[in-house]
Amino acid sequence: MGLVFSCFFGIGGISQDKASPMVTVDLSTDSLIHLTYEQFMELEDEAYDKNELNRLRKLTDIHVQKAKSESNPLEIASGYYYRTIIEEPELAVKYCDSIIFVTVDSEHPKYPTLGYILKAIIYYDKAVYQLALHNYLTAYNLAVEKKNFKHQLTSSMAIAAIRNLNGQSHAAADIYTKSLILLKGEEDYKNRYYKDYMILLYNLSLAHLRISQLDSSRLYLNEGIQRAILVNDTMEHRDMVLVGAQLDYYEKNFEKAKDTLLKYTYQLEGNSKAMKLYYLGKIAQDSGNNNLAITYFKQIDSIVEETKAPFDNIKDVYQQLVMHYGLKDDQQREIESIEKLIFYDSLMTTDQKGIIQQATLAYDIPYLKFQKKKAEELLKVKSNWVLILGTIAALGLLGGPYFYVKAHRTKIKLRILMEDPKKLKSNTRKVEEHPASVPEEIRNELLAKLEAFEKSDLYLRKDLDMTLLAQEMDTNTSYLSTIINHYKQMSFPRYINGLKISTAIEELTKKPELLKYNYHGLAETFGFKTGESFSKAFYKKTGVYPSKFLKELKVRGIGRHL
Is position 465 within any domain? Predict the structure, then answer.
């Protein structure tokens, strides 16, 4: 899938190739200035389709000239449109700004939103994700204000795509799910919004794959594959099947994954190709063919050198190359790979922090405020019922002091979970003495890494154990165990399960759709192997069984605020 969001404006790749035959048309200003705007658009579309770029520039110049003379801002914007997609990025952004400038006060449902979306697409293609996100967020808010469904859908999907690429897969999956629900509310959505529908299924599958919800990922993927087959869309089918290869890899169906990747990967370009080569490299490693794996990693290095756009597995690629060149005693290439690893690690970390903060402030918080307003309105309507139920509950409690005390304690615990689930997060405790068995430099480094680890979602992995985490943190299990036992004052399993349960409580409070899951589904979502282990860990962490907590969420009506 070439783009991870909808480009419904007719945007596509255009080369500067002048081989297309020219149609004889009088391009003098005098002859064209009297055309209608509809005629201008027909000629511009024709020039674009035939890749006659100089002719297209001339037409758009006269189109804008005519619109300016008639003080018609919408037609000025229309004239600038094609320049945003045929010019080099720096100039194209200026045309986008011109569209925004001339339509800033427009009441038209498409403007100036379209200018922000076009600018965001340019930045996205250049992998300048913070600027892309900024423009998509602006476009989304304008689309909501103007009640433009198509622009809302496009912007929200793009926001989700950027967050997915920058380590916020849970948030991305949530936005995609809401977008799909919104889309399915439209009449004949599978045909009228086919492209958006397919992109949503594709991205939902990828997002759930990133958070290790393989069954959900497969469900969306199969829906997309069936639709692509039904309408005979070979390109969409190929892209869906390639996601299926990634799923096969994580399900350890290596041969099936390899066959699919080899069939289609070399049809791709840029980072899309690099991402698939990564899985071929990992499959080669798993089969013991390290030389072939390095060949794939070197190809990825060449692609990233050209695109200057890293992807989430790039650090692993350069770590493998550093080890390879170290073993080959090739110091020059080893140093180059180390420098790239440091550069892209720093770049991605900085970008991700900026994107997380920007998305939270401009998208998540306004959405939560909107949900809060709806909840307050519902609560106001139901206030009389709450008083009645409270009175009945109070009368019932008078008859049973033991059960009252027990229920009261449970209620206090539930209230704490509902109002401030973050209190449950594991924090490093201050201690008077430090473990002598761990050198001070290593101790400080591990504490910093644990702090970063707790802010990530890596602890949700079902296969995570002490050995794997020690490898991730470039240390040994002895040091790691000592640090956790001493500063967290708990065992490693209890520490990890505590982080998982804290996240489960936060997510369940924020995401009503999770309330539909049974214990097995919740265990899968939050990194437990069984529903029983999830339930036991929940009770051990909170003193409340998850059934009580889920029931309280439903009673409070969270399940209805979708």
Answer: yes
